[in-house]
Design goal:
The complex is a heterotrimer of chains A (527), B (291) and C (319).
Chain A (H helix, E strand, L loop, with lengths): L2 H20 L11 E5 L20 H4 L7 E3 L6 E3 L2 E6 L5 E6 L12 H12 L14 E8 L2 E6 L6 H5 L7 H4 L12 H4 L7 E7 L3 E6 L12 E5 L4 H9 L5 E4 L1 H5 L7 E16 L9 H10 L2 H7 L5 E3 L21 H11 L1 H4 L5 E5 L4 H17 L3 E5 L2 H10 L7 E7 L8 H4 L17 H12 L3 H18 L2 E14 L2 E2 L20 E2 L2
Helix pairs in contact in A: 9-11, 16-17
Chain B lengths: L1 H6 L4 H11 L1 H23 L31 H36 L2 H16 L2 H12 L3 H28 L2 H8 L4 H37 L11 H5 L5 H6 L2 H28 L7
Helix pairs in contact in B: 2-12, 3-4, 3-12, 4-5, 4-7, 4-9, 4-12, 5-7, 6-7, 7-9, 9-12
Chain C lengths: L1 H28 L17 H11 L5 H13 L14 H36 L4 H15 L2 H15 L17 H35 L2 H8 L4 H28 L4 H7 L4 H10 L3 H29 L7
Helix pairs in contact in C: 1-12, 4-5, 4-7, 4-9, 4-12, 5-7, 6-7, 6-10, 7-9, 8-9, 9-12, 10-11, 11-12
The chains are: A alpha+beta (527), B mainly alpha (291), C mainly alpha (319).
C-alpha cells in the first residue's frame, strides 16, 4: 500500500466515524396525559428536598402531594382551610381549633387528628431535623377532641402562627412513627415512598433529573385530569427556558429578560406576579461608615431608581420608600428620595464623608447571581461614583454570603444588595430589622439597632386585631423611611412561562413557593 | 552566548527566525496577534468610551457609528469592554502560562534526571496536585485571596503544571538512558547542567507546544471559570465574563453582538497564538535542519 | 514488577489520606457551611432554628474531632449522609453518578481518540499539504473554542431550534428506559465534548509523529526499502504514541471528575454536576466522598500509564 492510499484509508475511516457519530437519533414520544414542568426552578424552588420539615422553599411542588392544615389563597391575600375544613381562634388568642376534612392518605388509611398531633409534635422537635422548631416553639399542647377535631394551645399569642402553619405539611403517623426521631431527617422514606393527601402521589425520584407523580384517583377534590406530573430538575433557569422552548416541558420560572422573549408568542403565556421581596442596599451598622444618617440619605439621593426601574426592569418593579409597597401599609408624607446627585454631594460634604471613608473602595456584596442584578449593581456603582462613593460589587454564592454575614468581620461586608420577604404577612420584615433579632437570635444581619423602629415593630407584632394592624405597620414604614436602616430600592416582579397547551394551570411567584391554592387536580394538557 | 552565535556562519537563532518567517501560518498568526495586542494595550488613548461607563438610554444597541460594536445590557460600550477584556484575559493567560511552564518543566525535569527516589516522591506530589478538584480549589482560593484577576491567575497556573511535568519527565526518562546523557553524567555533570544543557533542548518542542496551548487554555479556562461565576468578577471586563452573557437565551438570540465579538476575539486570538507557537516549534527544532 | 505495583498501591493509599486531610481543611477554610447554604437570605428564617441544625449535624465540634469522626466512619465504608439530598447515603449516591460520567466521558474520549490519532497521523504524513493545513486549522479552531460556548450554542441550535436532540438531561422524564433515548441524549454532549480532546490529541500525535519520522531508525527502515505504510505503522506510530498515551492517560484520570461545563449546560447527572451542586450547597460528606473517589481514579490511571510506558518502551526501567 502506498503512502497516499494509507492516507485515503484514514480519511475514509474518519469520515465514516464522524458520520455515524453525527447521525441524529429521533427523540422518544411520551404516552398518557403527562405534564412536565420545572416546578423547582428559581428562588421559590428547592430541588432535591423532599422533606417538608426541612424545606425553606419548594412548597409549590411539595403541595402537589402533601397538604397543610391552612393555606394561602391563590392571590396570597389571606389564609383559607386546606386539610382543615374550618379553623377558629379562641378569644384568648391562644386556642386554635381545626375541624378536619374527611380524606384518606394515598395508601388508603384515613387522615385523622392523630396525624395532626403527630406532625406538629414532630415539627416542633428540633431532634427531628425540623427547621420549624423555633417558630413553632409557642405551641403548648396539641389535643385531639375526636377523629376530626384538633385543638392547638399556644403558650403566648403569636400573630404569625397560622402563617407558619401554612408551611407545615401534614404527615402520616402510621408511616413515620416507627422511624426513630433522630433518623427522620435522613430517612429514605421521603424520596422513595412518601404518602400525602394531595391530588398526586409519589412514583419515583431519579436523582438530579426528575420527580414523577401519578394521579391520586381517590383525591377528595376529584380525580386529577393529568395522569402524570413530572418535575424536571435544571441547573439554572436558562436551561429550563431552553427546554420549554424545545417543547420538552410546559412550565417554568423564568428570569425577567428570558420571560420577555416569550412576549407576543401565542404558544406561551407569561405569568407576572409580585415577588413579595423588597430589595435594599443594606448598610452594616457596625461597619462604622454609615452612622451618619446624612450619608445614608446621600446614597438614596445619588441613585436614579426611576431610570433603573424603567430601563433595567422594563418598568416591572415598584419603587420602595420603606420596606413595603402594598398601599394599605404606606402612611402619608413619606419622603420619596427623588434622584438628586447635587443634594447627595452636599449631604456627604456636610457629613464629612472625606474623613469617614473618602474614595476608598467599599466591597458591595450580593448573593444574587443573575445577569439582571449584575447590571443593576453596575448601574448603581456608576451612579454612586458620581457623588464620591466608591463601591465594588461582588457576587457570592449563598453559603459564602451567609457565612460572611455570620462571621462578624464587619470590614468584609460593609454594604450588601439583598432582599427580604415583605409579604403577604408584613411581619416578615421584623426578623431583619428588630434590634432583638440581631444574630444569633434572628436574621438582622445588618445589625440595625434603632430603638424607635424596634418599638414600632414590637407594637405591630403584638397587634392581633387585623383591623388595627395596618396602622401599626404604617408606623414601621414611617420609621424606615425617616431613619433609613436600609436604603430601600424596589419590589420587582417575578415571572413564570406556561405552554399554551396547559389548561386551568395556576401558578404565582409566591415567596418560597407558597404554598397557595393552585388546584393541581384541575391542571390539564391539550394533546 | 548571543555574540558567539553571531560569530558562526549563520547563527542558529537567525536561522530559526528565518525558518519562522518562511512559515505562512506563523506569520499570519503574528500578523493577527500584533494588532490585537496593540489595540488592547492602547485603546484608552484613542477610544472615547471607558469599559465601565454606563448609559441607561443606550442599552442593548446594535453596532452603530457611535458604538462600533454596540452596547450591552447597561449601555456599556462593547468595543471598550472587548479591548479591556482582552487586556485582562491576555494578562491572566500569559502570566499563568509563564508560571505553570516554569513549575511544570522544573518539577518534571528534576523527576526525570534526579534519580529514582526523587522521581518517586515528586511524581506522587504531581499525582496529588492532579487529584485536587478545581472547583473546590478555586472556591477556597477566591474566599481567601478574594475573587478577581490574581486568584484566577494563581488557580490556572496551579491547575495546569502537572500535565506538563508528566510529559517532560516521560521524555527525559527516555533520555536518561541515552548514551550522551549517561556520558555527561559519568563526566560529573551536575543536575543544573543536565537540566539546562540536555533537559531544555530536548524538551523544547514539548515546552513550546505546551506553552502555546497553555496560553490558549489559559484564556479558555478564564472564560470557563467566569462562566461558573468563579473567575474575573464583573463589572471588571474579561472575555470570559462577557461571553457569560450568552447564557441567557434572550441575549443569545436578540443581542448577538454582545457575545459574538468577545467569542470571535477569543477564538481568533487563541488561533493566532497557536499558529505562532506551531511556527516557533518548527523553527527552533534543531532536527528540522536535517529534513 | 509485582513488587513495584504493590509499593505504588501503598503509596497511593497514603496519598489518598493526604488528599482527604487537604480537602477537609480547604473546605473548612471556605466561608459558609451546609446550613448557610440552606437558606435563601430573602426568606425570613430564625437563626435559632439554623443553629439547632448545626448542632444536630455536629458542625459545632472542633475540626480535628470532625475529621477523625469522618475518617473513622469512612474506614468502615460509611461515608455518611448527604446534607442536600435529604439524607441519601453518600456512597450509593456518588457511585450512581459514575455510570453517567463514564458513559459520557468514554464516548467522547473514544470519538476523540479515534479521530484525533487518525487525523494526527494523516496530517503528519501529509505535512504542509492542503489536507494537513485544513485539518490543523480545524484542530486549532476546535482547541480555540470555549467548551461552554460550543455547548450553549450546540444546545441552542440542535435542541431548541432544530429539535434534533433533547435539550439536556440523560433520559426522557417518565419514559421507560430505552437505549435509543439514552443515545439521543448522549450524542450531542459527547460530540461537543470530543472536539477539544480530539483536537488536542491530533496536535500531539502530529507533532510526535513528525519527531519520530525524522529519527535515524525510520530513515534506516526507509532506506532498507520497507514500504512507507509499514514504516509508519510499525516503526513510527508505535514510538510516537508515547506522549499521546501520557496525554490520554491524564485525560482519563481527570475524566472521572466529569466534564463540568458540558454536564452543567446539559444537566447531565454525572460527577461534574454532582460536584458543582455539592460545592454550591457545601455538602461536605458528598464532596469528601466524591473527591476521594476521583482521586483514587486519577492515581490508579497514573499508575496504569506508568505501567503502559514500561510496556511500550522497554528501555524505561520501572522506577
Amino acid at each position: 500500500m502506498h503512502r497516499r492510499n494509507f492516507g485515503r484509508l484514514l480519511a475514509a475511516g474518519t469520515l465514516f466515524l464522524a458520520a455515524t457519530a453525527m447521525m441524529p437519533v429521533p427523540a422518544m414520544a411520551q404516552a398518557g396525559k403527562t405534564i412536565v414542568g420545572g416546578f423547582d426552578v428559581g428562588p421559590g424552588g428547592f430541588q432535591g428536598n423532599f422533606n417538608p420539615l426541612t424545606a425553606t422553599a419548594g412548597f409549590t411542588w411539595l403541595n402537589t402531594y402533601f397538604e397543610p392544615l391552612v393555606i394561602y389563597t391563590s392571590d396570597l391575600s389571606k389564609l383559607t382551610g386546606a386539610l382543615a375544613s374550618e379553623f377558629t381562634v379562641g378569644q384568648d388568642n391562644l386556642t386554635y381549633t381545626f375541624k378536619l376534612v374527611q380524606t384518606n392518605w394515598h395508601d388508603g388509611k384515613p387522615f385523622t387528628s392523630a396525624d395532626v398531633k403527630f406532625t406538629l409534635e414532630l415539627a416542633k422537635n428540633a431532634e427531628s431535623g425540623s427547621i420549624f422548631a423555633a417558630r413553632l416553639g409557642d405551641i403548648a399542647s396539641v389535643e385531639t377532641l375526636d377523629e376530626r377535631t384538633a385543638v392547638v394551645k399556644l403558650s403566648k399569642p403569636n400573630s404569625a402562627f397560622l402563617s407558619v402553619l401554612s408551611q407545615v405539611m401534614m404527615l402520616p403517623r402510621h408511616a413515620l412513627s416507627p422511624v426513630p426521631l433522630k433518623e427522620v431527617a435522613k430517612s429514605q422514606w421521603w424520596s422513595t415512598q412518601p404518602i400525602g393527601t394531595g391530588p398526586f402521589k409519589f412514583v419515583k425520584y431519579v436523582s438530579d433529573q426528575y420527580v414523577e407523580m401519578a394521579a391520586y384517583e381517590g383525591y377528595r377534590g376529584g380525580k386529577p385530569k393529568a395522569d402524570r406530573l413530572i418535575n424536571r430538575y435544571f441547573a439554572n433557569a436558562a436551561a429550563a427556558v431552553a427546554a420549554l422552548r424545545a417543547g420538552e416541558i410546559q412550565f417554568t420560572f423564568a428570569e425577567p429578560d428570558d420571560a420577555k422573549t416569550f412576549k407576543g408568542n401565542g404558544n406561551f403565556r407569561i405569568i407576572e406576579g409580585d415577588s413579595y421581596v423588597v430589595n435594599y442596599i443594606g448598610f452594616n451598622h457596625r461597619a462604622g461608615i454609615w452612622n451618619d444618617p446624612r450619608v445614608r440619605q446621600a446614597v438614596m439621593y445619588a441613585i436614579d431608581r426611576n431610570a433603573i426601574v424603567s430601563s433595567l426592569y422594563g418598568g416591572a418593579a415598584k419603587l420602595a420608600n420603606c420596606g413595603y409597597v402594598a398601599p394599605q401599609l404606606l402612611p402619608k408624607g413619606l419622603s420619596d428620595y427623588a434622584y438628586n446627585p447635587q443634594k447627595a454631594k452636599d449631604l456627604l460634604a456636610e457629613a464629612g464623608w472625606d474623613k469617614i471613608n473618602g474614595d476608598k473602595p467599599i466591597p458591595w456584596l450580593t448573593y444574587y447571581n443573575t445577569p439582571q442584578v449584575a447590571n443593576v449593581m453596575a448601574a448603581i456603582q456608576a451612579m454612586l461614583v458620581q457623588v464620591g462613593i466608591n463601591v465594588v460589587p461582588r457576587a457570592l454564592d449563598v453559603p459564602t454570603y451567609n457565612g460572611i454575614a455570620r462571621s462578624e468581620k464587619w470590614p468584609d461586608f460593609p454594604l450588601v444588595y439583598a432582599g427580604l420577604q415583605n409579604g403577604p404577612n408584613p411581619a416578615s420584615l421584623n426578623i431583619g430589622l428588630n434590634a432583638a433579632q440581631i444574630p444569633p437570635a434572628g436574621n438582622n444581619i445588618m445589625r440595625v439597632e434603632m430603638p424607635a423602629l424596634t418599638q414600632a415593630l414590637n407594637t405591630a407584632m403584638g397587634e392581633t386585631d387585623p383591623a388595627k394592624a395596618d396602622a401599626k405597620w404604617q408606623q414601621v414604614c414611617k420609621e424606615m423611611n425617616a431613619q433609613l436602616p436600609w436604603g430601600p430600592m424596589w419590589v420587582a416582579s417575578r415571572y413564570g412561562v406556561v405552554s399554551g397547551k396547559l389548561r386551568d394551570f395556576f401558578w404565582t411567584p409566591a415567596p418560597a413557593g407558597g404554598p397557595f391554592v393552585s388546584h393541581p387536580e384541575k391542571w390539564d394538557i391539550a394533546p | 552566548m548571543a555574540a558567539l552565535a553571531h560569530n558562526r556562519s549563520a547563527g542558529p537563532i537567525r536561522r530559526a527566525l528565518s525558518r519562522f518567517f518562511e512559515n505562512g501560518a506563523a506569520v499570519a498568526g503574528l500578523a493577527i496577534l500584533v494588532p490585537i495586542l496593540l489595540l488592547t494595550l492602547t485603546y484608552d488613548l484613542w477610544w472615547p468610551y471607558r469599559p465601565n461607563d454606563i448609559d441607561l438610554l443606550a442599552m442593548n444597541r446594535g453596532p452603530s457609528p457611535t458604538h462600533w460594536l454596540g452596547s450591552d445590557g447597561v449601555g456599556r460600550d462593547i468595543m471598550a469592554r472587548l479591548l479591556q477584556g482582552g487586556r485582562t484575559s491576555l494578562l491572566v493567560a500569559t502570566v499563568s502560562m509563564a508560571i505553570s511552564t516554569f513549575i511544570g518543566f522544573f518539577i518534571g525535569a528534576i523527576a526525570g534526571f534526579a534519580g529514582r527516589l526523587v522521581d518517586g516522591v515528586t511524581m506522587r506530589f504531581v499525582d496529588l496536585a492532579m487529584t485536587l478538584p478545581p472547583v473546590i480549589f478555586l472556591l477556597v482560593l477566591a474566599s481567601i485571596v478574594g475573587s478577581g484577576i490574581m486568584p484566577t491567575i494563581f488557580v490556572i497556573s496551579l491547575l495546569s503544571w502537572p500535565v506538563l511535568s508528566r510529559m517532560v519527565r516521560a521524555r527525559l526518562l527516555e533520555l536518561r538512558e541515552r548514551d550522551f546523557v549517561v556520558a555527561s553524567r559519568g563526566m560529573g555533570a551536575g543536575l543544573w547542567h543536565l537540566l539546562i544543557r540536555h533537559g531544555l533542548p530536548n524538551t523544547i518542542d514539548i515546552l513550546v507546544v505546551y506553552a502555546t496551548l497553555q496560553v490558549a487554555s489559559g484564556i479558555l479556562l478564564e472564560a470557563g471559570l467566569s462562566f461558573l461565576g468563579l473567575g474575573v468578577t464583573p463589572p471588571e471586563a474579561s472575555w470570559g465574563n462577557m461571553l457569560n452573557a450568552a447564557r441567557a437565551t434572550h441575549v443569545l438570540e436578540n443581542y448577538p453582538w454582545q457575545w459574538m465579538f468577545p467569542g470571535g476575539a477569543l477564538v481568533v486570538t487563541v488561533l493566532a497564538i497557536n499558529f505562532v507557537g506551531d511556527g516557533l516549534r518548527d523553527a527552533f527544532d534543531p532536527r528540522s535542519e536535517l529534513k | 514488577m509485582l513488587h513495584y505495583i504493590l509499593r505504588r498501591t501503598a503509596v497511593g493509599l497514603l496519598m489518598l489520606l493526604a488528599l482527604t486531610v487537604l480537602i477537609f481543611t480547604l473546605l473548612r477554610l471556605t466561608p459558609g457551611d451546609p446550613i448557610d447554604a440552606y437558606v435563601n437570605p430573602s426568606v425570613p428564617m430564625s437563626a435559632a432554628d439554623l443553629e439547632m441544625l448545626r448542632t444536630r449535624l455536629g458542625l459545632d465540634q472542633p475540626l480535628p474531632v470532625q475529621y477523625f469522626a469522618w475518617l473513622g466512619a469512612a474506614l468502615t465504608g460509611d461515608f455518611g449522609y448527604s446534607i442536600q439530598y435529604n439524607g441519601e447515603a453518600v456512597l450509593p449516591l456518588v457511585l450512581s453518578r459514575i455510570g453517567p460520567t463514564i458513559l459520557l466521558m468514554f464516548s467522547a474520549l473514544a470519538i476523540s481518540v479515534v479521530i484525533g490519532i487518525a487525523t494526527g497521523i494523516f496530517a503528519a504524513v501529509r505535512r504542509n499539504r492542503f489536507a494537513d493545513l485544513s485539518l490543523s486549522t480545524a484542530a486549532f479552531v476546535g482547541i480555540s473554542s470555549p467548551a461552554f460556548l460550543t455547548a450553549l450554542l450546540g444546545l441552542y441550535v440542535f435542541a431548541v431550534i432544530l429539535r434534533w436532540v433533547p435539550a439536556g438531561g440523560m433520559l426522557t422524564p417518565g419514559a421507560p428506559f430505552s437505549i435509543g433515548d439514552l443515545l439521543a441524549h448522549l450524542i450531542l454532549p459527547a460530540t461537543l465534548l470530543s472536539i477539544g480532546h480530539g483536537a488536542l490529541i491530533m496536535r500531539y500525535m502530529r507533532s510526535s509523529l513528525l519527531e519520530v519520522l525524522s529519527q535515524d531508525y525510520v530513515r534506516t527502515a526507509r532506506a532498507k526499502g520497507v514500504r512507507e505504510f509499514w514504516v509508519i505503522v510499525k516503526h513510527a506510530v508505535r514510538n510516537a504514541l508515547l506522549p499521546v498515551i501520557t496525554l490520554i492517560g491524564s485525560t482519563i484520570g481527570i475524566a472521572i471528575g466529569g466534564a463540568i461545563f458540558i454536564e452543567s449546560v446539559f444537566d447531565w447527572p454525572g460527577m461534574g454536576l454532582l460536584m458543582i451542586n455539592a460545592v454550591a450547597r457545601r455538602d461536605y460528606p458528598v464532596i469528601m466522598c466524591a473527591t476521594l473517589l476521583t482521586g483514587a481514579c486519577v492515581i490508579l490511571v497514573n499508575l496504569l500509564t506508568d505501567i503502559a510506558y514500561a510496556a511500550v518502551d522497554p528501555r524505561i526501567k520501572v522506577a
